[in-house]
Amino acid sequence: MDQKHIRNFCIIAHIDHGKSTLADRLLVATGTITERDMKEQVLDDMDLERERGVTIKASAVRMLYTAPDGETYELNLIDTPGHVDFTYEVRRALQAAEGAILVVDATQGIEAQTLANLYMALDANLEIIPVVNKIDLPAAQPELVAEEIENLLGFPAEEVIPVSAKTGENVEQVLQAVVEKVPPPSGDPDAPLRALVFDSHYDPYKGVIAYVRVVDGALATNQKLRLMAAGIDIEALEIGTFSPRMTPTDRLETGEVGYVATGLKEVQDVRVGDTITLANKPAAEPLPGYEPAKPMVFAGIYPVDNEDYLDLRDALDKLRLNDAALVYEPENSAALGQGFRVGFLGLFHMEIVQERLEREYNLNLIATAPSVVYRVVLTNGEEIEIDSPAELPDPSKIEEILEPWMRVQIWTPSDYIGPIMELVTNRRGVFEKMEYLDEKRVLLTYQLPLSELIVDFYDQLKSRTRGYASMDYQFSGYQPGDLVKLDILVNEQPVDALSIIVHRDQAYEKGSALVRRLKEVIPRQQFKVPIQAAIGRRVIARQTVPALRKDVLAKCYGGDVTRKRKLLEKQKEGKKRLKKLGNVEIPQEAFMAVLKIG
Ligand code: GDP
Ligand code: MG
């Protein structure tokens, strides 16, 4: 297709505002898929995504659209991941487009990711087409939301298109706006090939499939290609477009979006942001902005049953095939046995991976408290990075510990400012500013240590605001902190997997809360079990699990049989997730307790 008839665009929205539904509706309106296919959300491939309504991986679909001017246009819809942890991927996907449809829910108004995504789209110089979605709902207030869009974002209210992605109302107008407002791609067809990789997935037959936007030059089959950042040469086994399924083609011209089957075995080799060029006629410079993904949050992941270790390794290997950001290495814990230290982009990424391991691979897992990456300056001047409390050197060797801080933005109805302030203050947050969006809603900006965000912060925020607040965060830099390692001893033995790094001012409070909680979840033994929290050799909190007085069943003898059976069943269930430490059995809940004492 000639360049003037190409439009590349994406859809940006806060979660649940209707991005996927609108995407599907555009595919139906252009005849790319049938109404029946639409039931399956084409752009959300994984079950987990569909269930959570979260689009995790970006993808791209080509549509042909005949506009009222009689001309046929090639519209490439690039789907972006909808999650704060995937900011880098979102930015790359936005770079592959010239325009963005900004979707705002007519019953909700502008929310955290509406703005965060809009700012990224503006950064990428995209033409914005604002739409208000879900106008079919009785609670919809399209005029009010259009005004909000004018006041907050500066787009004239009368240009905001009111649509229903569900019924299809006014969706044709959106397609027309894409053709009229989004500029055609401006690359140079005569320059050496430069194609931006904005996503990838692993295909068992064709190897890693790179999703590309041809910026300059053209791609053809059987060319020798080079991944510039990775420094790997490949032969394009197949090139094609998503229409919406993978459809081979001979060429991808300047400005077009499609895929390259690389034959490579590891997505890690085909990084988002890399530039594909010709091996024998390479471009002088790669496209700007490449960064390797950097994990920010680490946790130990262990099988409950030690015999599942190899299954866990296989499952991680498989997940990694499609998740270039996932890193892991074997780790040994005295308490939990053999497992892995796993690195994630952020807390949502961590949740998704853990859930997939348990659900898709049927693994029974114990995860330790997540840790951020600390920078430790040693007394000898050396600086090391650690991502686990176990790696923290002896305090006598530490000059200073630095921890990552985040800039956190919270959108909330003004009624909840008090509870949010309280939460953030408890989490060592520093207030930066408060902006009123309208009479009822505010945008609060804070600086918070990442370590405080990864433990139960989001759930707390949601529960304190009845689900009304939304948040977004970005890394803002490393800062020194008065941090110490808090160890937990069960029956005088340190349990490595329960250690956490905490701020000194919070050590006593957290230590007390943790031993109290552990006392509740560690079952009674034949003997008394002391549970202690300690900093170095100094015990700062202590509880004791009293010895078992009688057999659990003793009190039931002669009594109700069903009750007896129930008790036995309960005990059996509890056993499934027990880890034996010395002569004390520690249940799964004990390891979870650390996650809930924020
Ligand atoms: P995304 O997270 O932005 O991709 O949002 P989805 O497309 O998954 O939509 C979130 C929810 O809103 C789903 O339950 C959709 O069925 C629903 N939804 C999306 N668009 C509309 C609409 O125009 N009208 C109504 N009534 N519901 C919609
Ligand atoms: Mg979606």
Automatic annotation (TrEMBL):
- GO molecular function term, any single one: translation elongation factor activity
Q: Which reaction does it catalyse?
A: GTP + H2O = GDP + phosphate + H(+)
Per its UniProt entry, which superkingdom is the organism in? Bacteria
Q: Name one GO biological process term.
A: positive regulation of translation
Residues reported to bind GTP: 16-21, 133-136
**Topology relative to the membrane:** Peripheral membrane protein
Q: Provide this UniProt record's keywords sorted from A to Z.
A: Cell membrane, GTP-binding, Hydrolase, Membrane, Nucleotide-binding, Protein biosynthesis
Q: Which residues form the signal peptide?
A: none
Instruction: Give the location in the cell.
Output: Cell membrane
- Is Kinase given among the entry's keywords? no
| Coiled-coil stretches | none
Q: Which residues form the Tr-type G domain?
A: 4-186
| Protein name from the UniProt record | Elongation factor 4
Q: Which organism is it from?
A: Ardenticatena maritima
